[in-house]
Amino acid sequence: MNVSDGEIITRSLTDRAAFVEVYDRHERVVYRYTARRLGQTWADDITSETFMVAFSRRDDFVGDDARSWLLGIATTLMRRHVREEAKAWKGMLASDLAQIDVDQFDEADSRLDATGAVRKLGKALARLPSGDRDALLLHTFADLDYLGISRALSIPIGTVRSRLNRARRKLQQAIDPARGREMEEHRGRNLAAAPSTD
To answer: Regarding predicted confidence, which is higher, 195 or 177?
Structure first.
């Protein structure tokens, strides 16, 4: 029989060492999420700090699964490192350019196109409001569903939907401005049936 995170956390209130089980279950998920957002340089620190904060606030935890709660704590801690996150997105460009093999000229054009798209995406992500960016990256990097994001950020599911929708539209606009404008025009189109030609 599997013991829930909630039961382990409750037990840790009297047996502090029991909290190690929560760490063992979720450390890799928190680390991967923070590494993808800030890079490995900050991932160890943020992951450690996440579990320290969680341990100190364990009496406030409600529920069975601690994953969303822990990712919410990590997201809050990462807000302190926004500048490093922006540098990490810019670093994606340098990393892609370093992979171009000058002997493969046919592939060079497509890689440069991809590099341009990565640059646009990085800039667009950096310009998103932090709430929209957090929701999008929890969904993309941490594989949280709407309910998980809602719990991680302590916001209603409707707000999660709005933030994800807004973030996707803005990123689409940044990557392909013509398609983004076309999508926006379709959002405001008249949906009434066309007049009959009979």
So the answer is: 177
How many angstroms from the chain centroid is the CA of residue 198?
Answer: 53
CA atoms within 13 A on the CB side of 8: 19
As a whole number of angstroms, the distance between CA 81 and CA 166 comes to: 23
- Token readout for 141 is 């990097």
Dihedral of CA 33/37/39/41: which sign? negative
| Chain-centre distance for alpha carbon 51 | 19
Confirm if 97 and 115 have CB atoms less than 8 A apart: yes
Angle between helices 20-38 and 5-12 (to 10 degrees): 110
Residue that the structure tokens 């997201």 belong to? 75
Q: Tens digits of per-residue pLDDT, 7-30?
A: 999 999 999 999 999 999 999 999
